[in-house]
Amino acid sequence: MPRSRLRSPARRVAQVLLVTLGCLLAAPAVSAAQTPTVLATRIDGTITPVVADHLEEGLRTAERERHVAFLVEMDTPGGLLQSTREIVKDILASDVPVIVHVTPSGARAASAGAYITLSAHVAAMAPGTHIGAGTPVTGQGEEASEKVVNDAVAFAVSLAEQRGRSTGFARNMVRDGTAVSDREALRIKAVDLVAPSRDALLAELDGRRVMVGPQGAEHEVVLRTAGAQVVEHELGFLGELRQLLASPELAYLFLSIGTLAVIYELASPGMGFAGVIGVILLVLGFIALSVLPFNVGGLLLLVLAAALFVAEVLTPGIGVFAAGGTVSLLFAGVLLFRGELGVDPAVLWPTALVVGGGSLLAGRLAWRARRALTATGDQALVGSKVVVRRTEGDTGQVLLDGAWWTVRGRDSAVTEGQHVRVVDHEGLELIVERAEPSEGRGTEQEDGP
After folding, report:
1. Are residue 58 and residue 155 in the same domain, yes or no?
2. Are residues 361 and 394 in the same domain?
3. Cys-Cys link to 322, which of 121, 239, 312, 447 (CB 3.0-4.6 A)?
């Protein structure tokens, strides 16, 4: 039989084995590629620049890792209008469908949260939630000017028009502060659906068609979310810390109290506890400033206030520097933050007065410390009254300030049990004179064990 015929069956078997092996190796990759994934994040609390950065990062991650959607589960009382605008811009330009779900029951999408919900490709709510109350307010909680309100109305209505949602609700929630429940929001078409849970939401959205992409380059996407694997996109420890510090009141308190603690350390140096606490508070305050939009002028006023307080400690007088620092600290709190942000007067005034008064007190403490006479070493023992415990020749032994000292009488030899008062010292010996038990500034000390 020809050799080529013998090789043919073996070659075919080898080919079959190779094909089978290739299929087995490729099967997990194909299976993984066919399983849709949804990137999900949770937003609780105020909308701040930290939240805006987090959502922007989530959108980039969803696009880069090719997730079928970006799910934002939300419960917020509102937040900064500027941060809200940045979030909305990112959502409107996203090539990945953004799903906003107001959840769990009892949650709300108020103020800034309502704008974000209106801008989403899919807006959903859980039973027992509400949405609305989007009237802009100032940092002190007062209603913004008519000009700002009109601008916000146009912003909300344009979002509703672009997503095909109720423009009447969008207008009323800003101008009149209207808020509605989940069922009412669904009835007036302010949102797209009501879903009690994440799984129910993803199952109901499967097959829905949405338009994604920036205006002028929109394209249709069919959601494939049934049975999708959910990948969590968390804020992380540092993000949580920055979100916690994203408060004008906290930033102002940390910077002010931190400055006062450092001033006290300068006034009365000791173990360094006040200085360490002060530096920690200052660092936290500057972290908060890195999160919040601030004015350089307000920061300069804050530095001027600190310089005036330090001057009060170094050159205490009638309190001129402390008064100037207090005024500067007040203006710093008023001018430190931009836009609708501001320090609550209930925090601003007491903090400035406490720090100003504290610097005045620190100045007085430093002045008294510098005027006080210092006594160190053996000189500090002069005037102390002790009892001679034992004698040896012309000298005796006394227990003073926890140590045994050799004493010698100035005019005569000392005797055991004699009450004496220290009047001088020569080398390691104390010079004493006779004293009555009631005389002297010291106290008798008992022998140690």
Report:
1. yes
2. no
3. 312
- The sheet with strand 390-392 has its strands ordered as 385-387, 419-426, 429-434, 403-409, 395-400, 390-392
Boundary of a domain, candidates 237, 256, 277: 237
* Domain extent for 389: 377-434
* N-to-C CA span, the chain: 115
Q: Count of CB atoms within 10 A of residue 266's CB?
A: 16
pTM score of the predicted model: 0.69
Domain count, the chain: 3
* Cα–Cα distance for residue pair 390/123, rounded to 1 Å: 94
- Do 218 and 258 lie in a common domain? no
Q: Name the token pair of 386.
A: 């002790």
Same domain, 202 and 304: no
Task: Return the closest-CA partner of residue 131 out of 180, 88, 73.
Answer: 180
pLDDT in tens, 171-207: 999 999 999 999 999 999 999 999 999 999 999 999 9
What percent of the chain is helix, strand and coil (3-state, nearest 5)? Answer: 50, 20, 30
List the strands of the sheet with 98-102, edge to edge: 193-194, 122-125, 98-102, 69-75, 37-44, 229-232
Same domain, 102 and 149: yes
Instruction: List the beta strands (DSSP E) in 28-121.
Output: 37-44, 69-75, 98-102, 108-110
Q: Got the DSSP string for 197-221?
A: SHHHHHHHHTT-EEEESSTTS-EEE
Under DSSP, the state recorded for 76 is: B
| Closest-CA residue to 163 (of 134, 121, 219, 131) | 121
> What angle is formed at CA 32 by the lines to CA 27 and CA 33, rounded to 5 degrees?
100
Amino acid at 113: G
pLDDT tens-place string over residues 71-94:
999 999 998 888 999 999 999 999
In the numeric block, the tokens 């007491």 are attached to 350
Note whether 137 and 263 are same-domain residues: no
Where is the domain boundary, 237, 264, 290?
237
Q: Are residues 173 and 112 in the same domain?
A: yes
Cβ-contact 106, 74 below 8 angstroms: no
